[in-house]
Amino acid sequence: MKSLMEWFFTTLGAVVVIYYGVKLLLFTRMLYPKRWFPLPKSFFLSMGEWAVVTGASEGIGRQYALALAEQGMNVVIMSRTKVTLDKVAKEISETTHRMVKVVVVDFTKDNIFNDIEEELMYLDIGVLVNNVGMLPSVIPRRFLEEEDLDQIITGVINCNVKTMVKMCKIVLPGMENRRKGVIVNIASGIASIPFPLYSLYAASKIFVERFSQGLHAEYKDKGVIIQAVTPFGVSTRMVRYQQTNVAMLSPRDFVKSSMQYIRAGDKTYGSICHMFLGWLLNSIPLKILHTESVLHGLQEYVERKQEEKKSSSSVISEA
Question: What is the bridge-based pairing of β-strands 74-79 and 50-54?
């Protein structure tokens, strides 16, 4: 009996060591994406002639469109503001000499996808970036405290959830037929846990993550890469253009980093610093994160940052 127990605990210990050793190896791979997940110079262009980017008028979407054009792809940029899209199209065309197709669409609305499908018909689409998203409020709020709640619910579901699924439905058949393609779906780091005060937004982004991972499993053998990218802080209009730092990345830096992880699996944080933030967030017990004092502190912190931002903008405008 003693020898059996010794054998059991020795085997159990070995399994645990191997398990965590493999996890550590996988973790260290993420620190060196160029070495572990190298991309040929013509990787993106080899997927197809065209890239499609939703929410491309600014921020992350604009930078993805520009970066893919720099890789030699023609791009379709989509958003609801034509004036801004035209400026982005001009910038991309002049700096990369690639073709740019502008599609004006409001993704919070219903019955828009037949028109989109017609716009994309016959294009050899190799890359789709589902970036468009809607955050009801930068200031953390309880679900019932939102004004025009019914309108917000419809907008978030249409923009963050329905658009991604419908765009995949439009573009994926061509990729499956050609047995190649890349779909990048932008989720959010805060969806790593149930996130109070951003409940609706976080829930919509966990849908993006799970849908992407399931779809990747379905179509990876068809040669199609489908990846959820889950950033934390990126300085865009959604977060009122907060000052960049080691955790709050510029859209350009984040996109440059995230594109190195295209072959890293069905989910990535897109950058090393955000990967550490994800690990940290998942290491803190939810009982602590969900206490009233923590939630109140978060609310006060964000409100204070927004007030500081407003004050700073006012001083600049008066100077």
Answer: parallel
pTM reported for the whole predicted model: 0.90
**Ranges of the chain whose pLDDT falls below 70:** 1-2, 4-5, 8-9, 12-13, 15-17, 19-27, 310-319
Token readout for 248 is 């709050």
Q: Which helix (H) or strand (E) holds 187?
A: none
Contact 185, 128 (CB under 8 A): no
Q: Establish whether 201 is a catalytic residue.
A: yes
Active-site entry in 201, 219, 261, 269: 201
Angle in degrees, 0-180, between the axes of helices 163-178 and 199-219, rounded to the nearest 10: 10
Are residues 132 and 125 in contact, defined by beta-carbon separation less than 8 angstroms? no
Q: Name the strand (E) or helix (H) holding 79.
A: strand 74-79
pLDDT value at position 304? 85
Contact 35, 169 (CB under 8 A): no
Q: Which CATH number fits domain 32-284: 1.20.1050.10, 3.40.50.720, 3.60.15.10, 1.10.1660.10?
A: 3.40.50.720
